[in-house]
Amino acid sequence: ALKVLEKMLADGFLEGVRQKGAYMHQQLHKLMKAHPDEILEIRGAAMLAGVVTKRDPKEFVKAFQSRGILVCMTGSDAVRLIPPYVIKMRHIDDMIEVFRDILMQRDKDQ
Fold first, then answer.
1. Is 73 exposed, middle or buried (0-12, 13-18, 19+ CB in 10 A)?
2. How confident is the model at residue 87 (pLDDT cuts 50, 70, 90)?
3. What separation in angstroms does the CA of 97 have from each of 67, 73, 85?
4. Which pLDDT score, from 0 to 100, does residue 19 have?
5. How is residue 36 annotated by DSSP?
6. pLDDT attached to residue 109
7. Are the C-beta atoms of 25 and 49 separated by less than 8 Å?
8. How confident is the model over 28-52, as a mean pLDDT?
């Protein structure tokens, strides 16, 4: 527990968390603009995001999990993304790309 606290108190750590959270939300909003028929709203702040979807979020949760990304539902209409504070920007990009792929696959299936 002491090592975790040391990491969180290290110079620049919390600023990095803020930057990564802002970047994640920026990328999610771009995804929403590209898929307004599927993504209705982005909620949350920092490293917590709720993506309100038109369809049952269980479908998204299963699709993410099949691609090795852990997400969960919040309520009956949103997918919750809570990446760890130590996530790298490239992993945020990977998560967004997987989300994009899931949305595009769903478009093809319709």
1. middle
2. very high
3. 11, 19, 19
4. 96
5. T
6. 65
7. yes
8. 96
Q: What is the pTM of this model?
A: 0.89
Q: pLDDT at residue 105 above 80?
A: yes
**What is the Cα 85 distance to its own chain's centre?**
13
* 14: three-class secondary structure by DSSP: helix
Report how far Cα 32 is from the mean position of its chain's Cα atoms. Answer: 12
Residue 107 clears pLDDT 90, i.e. is over it: no
3-class secondary structure, 22: helix
- Which DSSP string corresponds to 45-98? ETTEEEEEESS-HHHHHHHHHHTT---EEETTTEEEE---TT--HHHHHHHHHH
Q: State the Cα–Cα distance between residues 66 and 59, nearest whole angstrom.
A: 11
Instruction: Kindly provide the b/e burial profile for residues 54-67, where b requires at least 16 CB atoms within 10 angstroms of the residue's own CB.
Output: eeebeebbebbeee
